[in-house]
Amino acid sequence: MEKQDQKSILIYETREEKLISPKSGKPITRIARILNPFTNNVSQAVAANGGPRSFENFPESLQQWKSRVSFRGRKNPPRKWKEWVDQLAEKYSLLWYQLGICDAILSSMYEVFPNRELVLGLSEFWCEETNTFVFSWGEATVTLEDVMILGGLPVVGESAMSPLTDDLMELEMRLKEERLKLVHSKARKPRQTAWLNHFMGSGSEFEHLAFLTLWLSRFVFPSRSDTIGQHVFQIAIHLSRGTRIALAPAVLASIYRDMRLLRQLASITCSYKIAFSGPLELVQLWACERFPNLGPNCNALQPGEPRVARYHKLRWNLTHPQVKLSLKSPTNFLWRPYAVNLTNWRHLAYYNESEEKELDVHSGLDDDVQSYIVCLQVSELVGVDCKENYFPHRVAMQFGLDQDLPGDVSDVHFDTGNGKIFIPARSFEPGVSTRYFNWWKEMMMARHDKIENNFVHGGVMNAKASPLLTEEKNVEDCHASGASGSMKSLSEEISQQSGDGDELTISMVTSKSRKRKTCADFGDQLHLIEPTREIVVRDDEMKECATHAVESKGRNAKSLCAVL
């Protein structure tokens, strides 16, 4: 229902405008298509705030965190997985296509090796307030379109958090029972390989549900330690019953959350290794597509292969200076990589070679065009365990539209029942308004001055180090509250334990003085790892993380930044 204090606006507006080409830098006057919300007033433009985003002059101690970060999100397909996919495809391929997950399931059969330097280099430019990369030449980000194309996941559908009806809750109970059997087995954990071996080839209707559960747990919303996570049960049940679920927004929410966490961890002096299990491989693929000089020599696509096949089993080396140098140059960036001709790649329906389209917005549009419309709208992304803001109007050129000053997103409601939608030709080159060009240039100059001022006055060099991370006890799972947020303080003790052994208490170890207790909303998929032991921080079932404060012993007591 539309709120009374909301203003209804069209997705984009058309007007004559003086624009500057991102390639040539030359101004040209033509009809511009500007993505809403925008503003004509520089004083009302919403800047990418948050302080300096450059580590170029930071002390070495703040750069060492990179050596402690690893990524475990993209798991290799387990043995027999391809065989199971082939078996079920004979019966369910049409359903997968209707659900919009056919390419995503195919993608799960390919291996993508992580490139740490690429993702970590990008994280230095991340702005937590806008969920965008803030480069000296402009803003860019991973959008719903990127997740749809690179991950093969649907943008349109019911929410990933859609509840189950009473009749479907019986299936959820059945899944929990099957999972509990594995917990009580010799392995004492619901291992994904055991799940596969148990259900593969059973021939029952439940086999398909078990298949979707494993696929979601391993490849879409990865579970820790290769286990079956209860957090995907509802989604798997909906999919098995033919309900299309918008998986792309939920996955993008987790990506934004993890990128925020990477930025926050840069300011923490940490004695532990940190491993992410989230889908940050999509950030890596995004970078390879948009900064081709940072990617490998890609495989040739075969007919019918998903986009991820280009990167199957490829390894390549990058240095941090190489990444930083490339990210600083606008000529290295492709605003519309999916519009480029690629052998054996089927362009989405809205990508036309030379014909521009202006379509009436109505419910009869095909899935590709409906997805494109959703990709253009400011929204709140609802994930399995988090919520994040989505601001495509700040990166309009990634959709082939022109960029103007980004406006205020509060109290904005899009009128998608009326009006038209403009779909540019693949050959179309978008531009930025002269207002935006001058505004961005002045903003970057101000930020550069701020960085210099910080160092002149010792603001960064003399900053006190954040508390060290230490271990109070080994933890199996931590289930967070799910609200996105930045670093925050704990002022009370919270304690909760589950009965099935999946939830264990996490301790917040404060400094000896207990003057400040700080924790990060690390979200779903973070592991804190000591060389010989592992502290796990996860959120499978979206329950509140159990924490309690204890005082560490010794003169050099450390403090653990635990996760809610």
Plain-language structure description:
With 564 residues, this protein is α+β, with helices and mostly antiparallel strands. Among the domains are: 7-50 and 355-443, no CATH class; 77-110 and 163-242, no CATH class; 469-564, no CATH class. Helix content is 28%, strand content 15%. It has 14 helices and 20 strands. It has helices at 60-63, 81-99, 102-107, 116-123, 144-150, 169-183, 192-199, 205-220, 233-240, 247-265, 281-290, 320-327, 367-375, 434-456; strands spanning 7-9, 12-20, 27-35, 69-71, 126-127, 132-135, 138-140, 273-276, 357-360, 379-382, 387-390, 412-414, 420-423, 432-433, 488-489, 506-510, 518-519, 525-529, 534-538, 547-551. A 4-stranded mixed sheet has the order 4-8-18-19, with no helix packed on it. Helix 8 (205-220) crosses helix 9 (233-240). The longest helix is centred in the last third of the chain and has 23 residues, at 434-456. The radius of gyration is 24 Å and the shape is globular. The two termini are 32 Å apart. The relative contact order is 0.16. Residues 51-62 and 458-564 have low confidence and may be disordered. GO terms for molecular function: transaminase activity. InterPro entries: AminoTfrase-like_pln_mobile (IPR019557), MAIN-like (IPR044824). This is Aminotransferase-like, plant mobile domain. Residues 100-440 form the Aminotransferase-like plant mobile domain. Keywords: Aminotransferase, Transferase.
